[in-house]
Amino acid sequence: MPPAAMPVPPTTPSPRRPRRRLGGTFVAGAGGRLLPAAVPFACFGAATLFHLWAWAALALGARAWAEGAGGLGWPLAALHAATLGVLVTSAVGASLQMLPVATRQPVRHALPAGALAALLVPGVVMVTLGMGLVRPVWLAAGAAAVGVALVGWGLLVALNLRGAQGMPGVVSHAWAALAALALLLLSAGALVALWLGTPLWERDTARTLHLAAGLFGVMGMLVLGMSTIVLPMFAIGPLPDERVQLAWGGAAAAAVVLAALAAFLGGASAIGARVAAWLLGAVALAVHLHAMRRTLAEGLRKNLGSTATLLKVAWVGAGLALLLAGVVLTLDALETARLGAAAATGAAAAGGGAGTRVPSEVRGIASRLFVVAAVGAWLLSFLFAVLHRILPFLAAMHAARGRRRGPTPSMLTLAPALAVHWRCHVAALLLLAAGTALESTWLIRAAAAAGGAGAVAFAAFFVVLCRRLVGAAADEAVPAGPAAREPGGG
Asked: Is 233 helix (H, G, I), strand (E, B) or coil?
């Protein structure tokens, strides 16, 4: 008699990990949540012109940048043409369009949104000319216009966030950016008052707060938040876990608060606050990059063309900016310790000997390299990575309104111009970094020439995009782009 079969215990299926939502699902039905095309494209068009103006201003101030000259002048004008003119103007256009789409809300304030560009753009022109030509009154007039425009933008974004449905990670980043915007406007007002001869705060206090609030508070928080909208949409990849988004957002916001607080402290207290801010910023960046790389790796669309290349440049730039900030912080900590020791021993604390000259020069070069890494390599590269894809996407959505089938983004894209742009952008960054490190005027002028060539190529892409959008809206034949596959992939 055969032995009885041993009973097989029932198997318990292993619990499945919940599937993460794919990015871009909010696009369904987004046609009814679009602003008039003239509103966002006016902002993007202005940013395109300011991109060229930033490189031209750098060429005018190449010697002053190489020598580390501070105060008003063309280097400061070039910096603000890039930050206010390119970054902020693009952020205004992108946020006013993408936030209603992502938060599934109808557009309620199209007219005020359109008025913002009419106020912001002339204001930025006056600010940069006032800086470059050393005309404080022009600068003050432009700053007033920019301030009013940014207050209006903040109110429109806040109204949208109040009715947001879902996306707590994105919403929390946007609220943090708006809080930083208030600090940015306060510090800008203090700096303008200083240049007009009526200082409200000490120069270093206003500058430090302006840097922390503008670079990391407003633009940094927007980049971290908008990444979770656009990158999963581009790659058709999973959205990062909301808890992870809130974790890196909380760390980044705390870092901004500590960096802003350090502006009002002195000595060892300021160094301690900056060290804590640096550590929290490093944690936020590491968690964010890990989540974003995972989203791209698991995405269904593997070839993102020039967007992938520029994203890699942006992420390397963010890491280099963090490293250079650490170098500057270390040098400041050593100088603070030296002054403290000198005061404790009764020695002269004024310094100025041969032993302090080289570290001060190194600090100046490291500070300027930090600006190149943070503004040029990180923020501008990320912005252009997004614009290379989001502009044709938005144009295609507008062209498809009221039509059964509209043009695809690739049909509206002048791909060769984008290939020229990203290559010139990377070359300009490398030349600018080398020129800054070597204090070479001709290398900085070469960087401005390469960047200017890239800006012209991007302008050609934008003009062709707008022409094809107008043609498609008029139901005319839309010529196909030279290549549906964008070159420059990663």
From this structure: helix
Torsion of CA 398, 403, 409, 411, to 10 degrees: -120
Model confidence over 346-377: pLDDT tens digits?
654 444 444 444 467 888 899 999 999 999 99
pLDDT score at 322: 95
CB neighbour class for 367 (10 Å; exposed up to 12, middle 13-18, buried from 19): middle
Burial of 272 (C-beta count, 10 Å sphere; 0-12/13-18/19+): middle
SS3 22: strand
**Digit-coded pLDDT (tens) for 260-271:** 999 998 888 999
CA distance 264 to 103: 37
Distance CA 80, CA 77 (A): 5
Count Cβ atoms below 10 Å from residue 312 Cβ, excluding itself.
13
Tokens 């049909």, residue? 411
CA dihedral 408, 413, 419, 424 (to 10 degrees): -140
Q: Which tokens hold the place of 7?
A: 């009973």
Residue 110 burial by CB count (10 A; 0-12/13-18/19+): exposed, middle or buried? middle
Quickly count: other Cβ atoms within 10 Å of residue 294's Cβ: 15
Helix (H, G, I), strand (E, B) or coil at 238: strand
Q: How far is CA 31 from CA 359, 386, 412, in A?
A: 57, 20, 18
- Specify which residues 238 forms β-bridges with: 22
Q: What are phi and psi of 22, to 5 degrees?
A: -80, 150
353 φ, ψ to 5°? Answer: -75, 180
How far is the C-alpha of 410 from the C-alpha of 363, rounded, in Å?
46
Q: What is the pLDDT of residues 16-45, one digit of tens each?
A: 444 556 555 555 555 556 777 788 899 999
Joined tokens for residue 464: 């062709």
Which pTM was predicted?
0.87
How far apart are the C-alpha atoms of 284 and 184, rounded to whole Å? 21
Three-class secondary structure of residue 224 per DSSP = helix
- Kindly list the distances between the CA atom of residue 263 and the CA atoms of 76, 184, 205, 260, in Å, as whole numbers in the listed order: 20, 13, 5, 5
d(CA 146, CA 126): 9
